[in-house]
Structure formats: C-alpha cells, structure tokens
Amino acid sequence: MKYNLHIRYLQGETVEVWNEIIALKERVFTPPFQEDVLQVVNTMVDRIVYNLELIYTELLAKGYVFDTQGVFNYYEKYHGKPVFFRKSNTDKIDLIVDFLTKLEPFGAHPLILAELYKKVDIIDFRGHFPDLKSYFSLDPLYLYPIEEIIEWVVRYDTNFDSIKDTNYIVFSPDESIKADGYGETNYGITISDKMVADGDLVDYGIDITFVEYLRQAFRWAGFSNLEYIAKPKKEPSTQIYYWRGQPPEDPNKWDVSKEIIDYQIIDIAVEIAGKTLLI
Predict the structure, then answer these.
(1) What does the pLDDT look like over 187-241, one tens digit per residue?
(2) What's 110-169 look like in SS3?
(3) What proportions of the chain, in percent to the nearest 5, are helix, strand and coil?
(4) Strand order in 142-143's β-sheet?
(5) What is the pLDDT of residue 165?
(6) Rounded Cα–Cα distance for residues 25 and 27 (Å)
C-alpha cells in the first residue's frame, strides 16, 4: 500500500486512494494511517457537500421543481415546510456521538456517513421538470436526517432489534417510495463490528458501496437511475429503460412509447455533472 493518501487524493487518485482506505478496514484509526485517512475523508465530505449545493442550485436554475410528491419529508412533517437540501447550521456532533454510542453494542456506522451527517441536515432531490417527460423514477438522491434515523431506531426500536437482525441502517427510501410514496423498502448501509471507512448498500439491487453510489449519482446530477438507461435504438427522442442495467426478458415486446425520457433531461444532467468535483 502506498502512503501519502491525502496528497494522492488531491492529485486525482480518488478511486485508487479510497479503495486502499476501504482495504484497511478497522485499521483506518491506527497509526500510521489515521491522520492521513481523516484528511481524505474531510476533503471528500467537503467535495460531496460542494457537489450537492451545486446540483441543487443548478437544478433550480434549469426549472426543476423540488416536490415531496405528497409524501412529507421530516422537516415538512414536524416543521410545516419541506427542506430539500440544507447544510448543517447547528452543531449536531453531540447528537451524532450519542447515537453512535447507543449503536456501538450492535455495530459501527461507516465513517464517511457519520462525517457527512456533521455537514448536511437533509438531502431530498425529489421533484420533476414540468415540461420534460420521464416515465420512470430517476431515483433522485435522498438522505434521511439524522434526527429521523434516531427517532426510528431509538424511539420505535429501543432494543435495536431490527439492526441486530439485519446489520444495516437505512439512509434513503427506495426509488418507488421516492416516485409516488408506494413501496416498503429503504436503501440501507451495512454496519460492522468496528468503524470502517465505507459500507455496502443494502436493497439497492447491485453490489455497490455508499461512496460508489454517490459517485454514480454525481455523474448524473443526482439522478442515479440515468446510469441504467440504454442508448436509443429507434427514435432519437426515446430512451429504453433497463432496470439496473438489465434488459427486459423479451425486448421485442418492449413498448418504447410507454418508457421514454425527454433527452433534455439527459443533457441537463450531463451539463451539471460536468461542474461537479470528483470524490
């Protein structure tokens, strides 16, 4: 393993460095790695927050309407007004530490998500382009507020039974819930005996880590499912949607007219993504 992790990360070896940090597992908090790893994580989180703020601002400028689709998010439910993206404007460190302490007997939250919660209150990029068609979920980025996670786990699951049984914590509703409120699944992130840098996603459909999921989302301006759209085969204005990259069982029966997306959405996503930072 090469050292100088933070220097190499700043020089553009973002994927290579992060893979090396993941390989360290629980040794991320031991010399000689700890200081270097924490510098990388802090830089990564700053870039994530920068990208989120940029995407949010750019989408608004492109006419995207942020909308909870009739399913209240945490701040709308408890404060009467939805919040779609907000950097943390309060000191939540004590809240996070208290939660991690309660969680400790059952597992440890990945470092990257714990640090992200210190900088971001909520991510809820649900919404639509009023004049552009999309007949499938774009799977916009979403991060439950830490207060909501604590409410579920501490208030309604006082014995942490669900975590004991599953070894993961939810961080986002799945694409079906985001689209229309109907669904029973949440995306989760695995916990481990000791805190590690990253975690695997649960109930997402493919093997991917949390950071890989964010990278994928940033490649498409916060809309992860654009990663899984096949290139047009018939009309230039249509795109065939393949679930997680898998084609339908019988492509000849695939009704393109019912599964289209306006190409402008793709163009907007690519344009915005070009302004984001690598994480």
Answers:
(1) 999 998 889 999 999 999 889 999 999 999 999 999 998 887 744 444 444 444 4
(2) CHHHHHHHHHEEEEECCEECCCCCECCCCCECEECCHHHHHHHHHHCCCCCHHHHHHCEE
(3) 45, 15, 40
(4) 85-87, 120-124, 142-143
(5) 65
(6) 5
